[in-house]
Each structure stands twice: as C-alpha cells, then as structure tokens.
Amino acid sequence: MKTLATRKWMMASLALAMVLGLFALAAPALASDGTFKVQAYHGINGNVLGLSKELPVDITIKNGEGYVVAVIPNFTFRDRIETNLPAGTYTIEVTSQEAGPLPSMTVGPVAIPEGVEVRLHARLLPSVQTPSIVVKVK
Questions:
Q1: Residue 113 contacts residue 130 (beta carbons within 8 Å)
Q2: CA 51 to CA 48: how far, in whole Å?
Q3: DSSP type of residue 137
Q4: CB under 8 Å, gap of 24 or more: what pairs does 108-115 form?
Q5: Which strand (E) or helix (H) includes residue 27?
Q6: 84-101: average pLDDT
Q7: Per the confidence metrics, is the pTM higher than 0.85?
Q8: How far apart are CA 124 and CA 51, in angstroms?
Q9: Vertex 50: Cα angle to 61 and 108 (nearest 5)
Q10: Is the dihedral of CA 16, 17, 18, 19 positive or negative?
C-alpha cells in the first residue's frame, strides 16, 4: 500500500512540476512591455500606375489625439521596416511624392493593444489596381 501511495504522490508531484515548468516557460511570452510590433512592406511597383518603379511615399503615423509620432520619408518599392510602438490608438497616412495623398492607403484611427504584431503590406488591389494597405494582426 505504501508503494501505491508513494507512486501517486510522486506522479502528482511530477505533474505539478511539469505544470509549473510550462508556466515558467510561458511567463516571458505572456509578459509585456506595453508595446506592439509593427512591420511595413512597400509592395507597389509604380510602373503599373504610370509612375516611377520606386514609387517613393512618406508615411505619417499619428496618435489618438492627432499628433504626429513618426514620419518615415522616402519609403520605396520593396522597402521593409520593423519597430515597436506603445499600445494605443493610431492613424497611418501615406502620401505619394509623385501622386499626392492616397486616401485608399489611410489606416485608422484604430486602437492597437500591447503584445500584438501588426503587418502592413502596401499593394495594388488586383480588381481595380488601386493602392491599398493590407493589414494583418497576429
């Protein structure tokens, strides 16, 4: 009888140790620093629109109050950028240096929580060849 009770106790202890170990591994992933990751990719070849292949654009990021928090100038075809921003409400506006404002490429205002990953991909919508930003959140 002692053997069976000892085995049960050891199995329970082992199960508890495994659960605590998994929690310890998951804790850093669950911990957050109050930011989210944002990645942007310029995937529009301007030649399709009758403009330069590079199609340089300026990206303006505004916070929930409308204040500019970042400007990415001269973002061109095939450029990529990745950064972290504090969680909050944002609007992203894209202006073409060749074609002017691009209302179809404005995103927001939208509240973005901490710990997520936001991917922004500038591309042409196939059906109408209109520049747009495809947004994916993970």
A1: no
A2: 7
A3: E
A4: 108/62, 109/62, 109/64, 111/64, 112/36, 112/85, 112/87, 112/88, 112/137, 113/36, 113/87, 114/32, 114/33, 114/34, 114/35, 114/36, 114/87, 115/32, 115/36, 115/87
A5: helix 2-30
A6: 91
A7: no
A8: 13
A9: 20
A10: positive
Interatomic CA distance for residues 60 and 129, integer angstroms = 23
DSSP 50: T
Residue type at 127? S
Q: What is the chain's length?
A: 138
Q: Is 49 helix (H, G, I), strand (E, B) or coil?
A: helix
Q: Tens digit of pLDDT for each residue in 16-71?
A: 333 333 333 333 444 479 999 999 999 999 999 899 999 999 999 999 999 999 99
For the chain, the distance separating the N- and C-terminal CA atoms, rounded to the nearest angstrom, is 52
Residue 44 sits at φ, ψ, to 5 deg, of -110, 115
Integer Cα distance of 111 and 97 in angstroms: 28
